């Protein structure tokens, strides 16, 4: 979602240019006045609707696993809930994303506007009512910290920021909201510019002095003709902002309806005047937006808030209303793959919003998907290695070095190089008049390397596609799982809780195949060195674990009850192998220890 | 409706005072939302001497949405799709740049200006744009061939 990165560009100059001392103090006062807690590198406990979690992809089925694996605490130690303050502190000191993030997201003292979300929740009294067991330590290299927010939370965050800045600027909340939206919610930039030139900022946001003394209103002006609808009847109600572009109220309303309803714009609608770039201010919008549009209008304003913030993204799952906050920035994406888990259970990459693609970095995912899509190498290979018979048109594959081709179908004899009649070449292809020694060698080399690179691609692609396919088949099995579970309950007298090991196994298969799938895209771009072997070993171990579990999973229902312990072991073994693979790969990625044969940027 | 009075006024103005090199007709007396324009190639361009039929469709939201343009006569041009639609979509013809006070006369002036000076950076036909940039001679040649073949 490129729109979400707009905030990145906007925020960048601010973090690079430290504010002057005067402004710095001012900004610091926001943080200190707003919170009694020390700045922390952990996410804070949340209010009811939001969830604070460590991005362990186990989360989705952690409960099921814990129910299913009561006697094997060693299996999922990273998922163990924390229950003491000591644990909490150890999280704080372990850092949000380790060294990789030290220069950016963890720098709370700089009052980086990107961290607003975290600060905002620190002074939220109710925040500390929630259970500390929701906090999980960010121990693994592949995990990132994130929060999930409901629309209510987002609204609350906005209100809180408006309140803070309003106190500081000594402006009413309503006007402050307009100013913040105008500045794309970049609090620090707003304060800085406001301190520099209050008049100008107010003016640009449509809140200038003449606005407060002269609030927007409808007028009937003698001799006015609306340039949009061409109406000119006397007493026609019209409106203009201070740029002077005047139109009748009906046209204005229709224009706004088009923008808000059809084009989804709200915070940055321009004056309808020809060539005018003046953004419509909120007061004018309040006056003109009809009641049937206000809900949509406010919803859009809220979306703008999330879109403007680099550290917030809407969950891409269809119909999901949650937003996720994560400190990973675009520039970090070469060193981390930030998978987050929405409360709706969808695991997605905060960097590119595609479904979870660990361990493969976003840039490689993009390249890989593109490659699979146009499948260009297959086409290249076909064009380099097959030609059509000049006589009958049937496709002929060249599979030896000899240029003397004989069509299998029509027995036409021709020269591979020039497609000319072989009979004109005499006894050997050396006589081909268009053949040059040099270009012939090149052609043969190109042919060989094209085939080799295709074979390499297909090796990885087949495995990638196989896991994608198997994951789909596993999903079908998952849907049958519930039925199996019911059968199992009645046939074995087991309780519902006891048969959940099947669901845990099914979900483990899904997750592990998802991971395996992306290991092949990762491996395709990996340049070979001694580290590659460790990766391939991890990959192989996970492959075997998954196949073992998958096989067992397809057994008959009457056998399943007896396999419970074994299956639980295999499930936890799969998950362990997955964690090992992801952790090791992410650790090296963070240390820039992998060499790729393409550019990650 | 806002649209009708406006459309009638625009039609009256454009028929009594058409932009240079343009004439307008209505194919149907009952439908004021489809206009036919005949545009002559700007004299100092490769299109000089040709005449193009362009269909202008006013959406029902007009003038809050831009009109749609369709070249009914084939033209070799980087900004016009080389298909049966013959669509052109740049500048004020784009939904996000269109402003309701913009007039069809302005659109037609834009079309002639873009015929005189193609905008390869906004191209819909990338290969034609590339040729326009890198092999102007060949571009001019084909464009003129198309004028003789289709627009005369
Ligand atoms: Zn009007
Ligand atoms: Zn204006
Ligand atoms: Zn979601
Ligand atoms: Zn990604
Ligand atoms: Zn043949
Ligand atoms: Zn030959």
Structural class of chain B: alpha+beta
Largest sheet of chain B: 5 strands, antiparallel
Q: Please give the share of residues in helix of chain A.
A: 40-55%
Largest interface: A-B, 17 and 15 residues
Q: What molecules are bound to this protein?
A: zinc ion
Overall average residue pLDDT of chain B: 92
Return residue spans of chain A where pLDDT drops below 50 for at least 5 consecutive residues: 1-135, 433-440
Strand tally of chain A is 13
* Computed Rg of chain A: 32 Å
CATH class descriptor of one domain in chain A: Alpha Beta
Q: Examine the secondary-structure arrangement and name the CATH architecture of chain B.
A: Roll
Compact overview of the structure:
By secondary structure, chain A is an alpha+beta fold. Chain A has helices spanning 6-16, 21-34, 59-68, 85-94, 116-122, 151-169, 173-182, 187-196, 198-204, 209-213, 249-262, 282-288, 291-308, 362-374, 376-385, 437-492, 500-525, 530-553, 557-560, 564-590; strands at residues 51-54, 145-149, 219-220, 237-239, 247-248, 312-314, 323-326, 339-341, 347-349, 386-388, 395-397, 404-406, 413-415. Chain A has a four-stranded antiparallel beta sheet with strand order 1-2-7-6.
Describe the fold and architecture.
Chain A: It catalyses: [E2 ubiquitin-conjugating enzyme]-S-ubiquitinyl-L-cysteine + [acceptor protein]-L-lysine = [E2 ubiquitin-conjugating enzyme]-L-cysteine + [acceptor protein]-N(6)-ubiquitinyl-L-lysine. Chain A: This is RBR-type E3 ubiquitin transferase. Chain A: One of its GO terms (molecular function) is zinc ion binding. Chain A: Pfam families: Ariadne, IBR, IBR_1, UBA_ARI1, zf-C3HC4. The complex is a heterodimer of chains A (601) and B (152). Chain A has 20 helices and 13 strands. Chain A is of the alpha+beta class. Among the domains of chain A are: 27-129, no CATH class; 149-308, 2-Layer Sandwich (Herpes Virus-1); 458-601, Four Helix Bundle (Hemerythrin (Met), subunit A) (Up-down Bundle), CATH 1.20.120.1750. Chain A is extended. Residues 1-135 and 433-440 of chain A have low confidence and may be disordered. Chain B has one domain: Ubiquitin Conjugating Enzyme (Roll). Chain B is 34% helix and 16% strand. A five-stranded antiparallel beta sheet of chain B has the order 1-2-3-4-5, covered by helices on one side. In chain B, strand 1 and strand 2 (34-40) form a beta hairpin. Chain B has four helices and five strands. With 152 residues, chain B is α+β, with helices and mostly antiparallel strands. The A-B interface holds A 227-231, 247, 250-251, 254-255, 258, 263, 272-276 and B 2-3, 5-6, 9, 61, 63-65, 95-96, 99-102. Bound molecules: zinc ion (ZN) (6 copies). The site of one zinc ion has 8 residues of chain A, from strand 5 and helix 11.
